[in-house]
């Protein structure tokens, strides 16, 4: 059994297995969460893909992770989003290099009190979007700590994209583009500035990350073997995870 398959097979996210003792508090009465769950079930029922990549969006609270995910997955944006509690997800299928790739994209809470929950999902992730807010110095200063967490809790071949979000708010910028670029070079990450609101570089950031993952698989024949990352039928998803709710301004 290959090293990659061990990570994918044991990931609680790949098989959507969440233990009943999860600390995520879900309000069953929220209709929006119920609608999202039905959408997720429909997407997950389609198992015809070549590869399945698990991607996490991480970073401080209020940097715009949820808006970034919704813009990419649904091409929608609303300023009314609120902070994610625990972890949430969406599924999107794309085509790259004649391969059908299913992306399981996980939106994580940035607050410290949820860190134990969210780091449990790092295992098996093939890619990370590490996000900061160009109008928030603290979120930029926290990038190094988030990078350390990736190295601690994920596997060595995970690819990372550094994204400075909210580039539409140029008048409120406190983090210069050059600083973001320099930090990404120091950490060995690729760099984008983006805006979920104006749909700037959202698709580009995700698809570049997917391309990097595919390039690494090409370089490593074992990773490129569909039997180690999925197959035409794909692994069966045994259970849908509980969905998080939102409780404060994002």
From TrEMBL:
<dbReference type="Pfam" id="PF00071">
    <property type="entry name" value="Ras"/>
</dbReference>
<keyword id="KW-0472">Membrane</keyword>
<dbReference type="GO" id="GO:0006886">
    <property type="term" value="P:intracellular protein transport"/>
</dbReference>
<dbReference type="InterPro" id="IPR050305">
    <property type="entry name" value="Small_GTPase_Rab"/>
</dbReference>
<dbReference type="InterPro" id="IPR027417">
    <property type="entry name" value="P-loop_NTPase"/>
</dbReference>
<keyword id="KW-0813">Transport</keyword>
<dbReference type="GO" id="GO:0003925">
    <property type="term" value="F:G protein activity"/>
</dbReference>
<comment type="similarity">
    <text>Belongs to the small GTPase superfamily. Rab family.</text>
</comment>
<dbReference type="InterPro" id="IPR001806">
    <property type="entry name" value="Small_GTPase"/>
</dbReference>
<feature type="compositionally biased region" description="Polar residues">
    <location>
        <begin position="226"/>
        <end position="241"/>
    </location>
</feature>
<protein>
    <recommendedName>
        <fullName>Ras-related protein Rab-3</fullName>
    </recommendedName>
</protein>
<dbReference type="InterPro" id="IPR005225">
    <property type="entry name" value="Small_GTP-bd"/>
</dbReference>
<comment type="function">
    <text>The small GTPases Rab are key regulators of intracellular membrane trafficking, from the formation of transport vesicles to their fusion with membranes. Rabs cycle between an inactive GDP-bound form and an active GTP-bound form that is able to recruit to membranes different sets of downstream effectors directly responsible for vesicle formation, movement, tethering and fusion.</text>
</comment>
<keyword id="KW-0653">Protein transport</keyword>
<keyword id="KW-0547">Nucleotide-binding</keyword>
<keyword id="KW-0342">GTP-binding</keyword>
<keyword id="KW-0488">Methylation</keyword>
<feature type="region of interest" description="Disordered">
    <location>
        <begin position="220"/>
        <end position="250"/>
    </location>
</feature>
<keyword id="KW-0636">Prenylation</keyword>
<dbReference type="InterPro" id="IPR037872">
    <property type="entry name" value="Rab3"/>
</dbReference>
<dbReference type="GO" id="GO:0005886">
    <property type="term" value="C:plasma membrane"/>
</dbReference>
<keyword id="KW-1003">Cell membrane</keyword>
<dbReference type="GO" id="GO:0005525">
    <property type="term" value="F:GTP binding"/>
</dbReference>
<keyword id="KW-0449">Lipoprotein</keyword>
């Amino acid at each position: 059994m290959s090293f990659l398959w061990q990570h994918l097979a044991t990931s609680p996210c790949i098989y959507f297995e969440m233990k009943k003792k999860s600390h995520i508090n879900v309000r069953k009465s929220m209709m929006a969460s119920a609608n999202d769950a039905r959408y997720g079930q429909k997407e997950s029922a389609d198992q015809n893909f070549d590869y399945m990549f698990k991607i996490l969006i991480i970073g401080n609270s209020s940097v715009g992770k949820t808006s970034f995910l919704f813009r990419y997955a649904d091409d929608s944006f609303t300023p009314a989003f609120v902070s994610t509690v625990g972890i949430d997800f969406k599924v999107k299928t794309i085509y790259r290099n004649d391969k059908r790739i299913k992306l399981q994209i996980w939106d994580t809470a940035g607050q410290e009190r949820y860190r134990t929950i969210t780091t449990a999902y790092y295992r098996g992730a093939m890619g990370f979007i590490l996000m900061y807010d160009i109008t928030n110095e603290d979120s930029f200063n926290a990038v190094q700590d988030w990078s350390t967490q990736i190295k601690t809790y994920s596997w060595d071949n995970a690819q990372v994209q550094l994204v400075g979000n909210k580039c539409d708010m140029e008048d409120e910028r406190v983090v210069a583009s050059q600083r973001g670029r320099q930090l990404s070079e120091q950490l060995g990450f690729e760099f984008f500035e983006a805006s979920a609101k104006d749909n700037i570089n959202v698709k580009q950031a995700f698809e570049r990350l997917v391309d990097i993952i595919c390039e690494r698989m090409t370089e490593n024949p074992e990773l490129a073997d569909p039997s180690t990352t999925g197959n035409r039928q794909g692994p069966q998803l045994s259970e849908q995870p509980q969905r998080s709710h939102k409780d404060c301004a994002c």
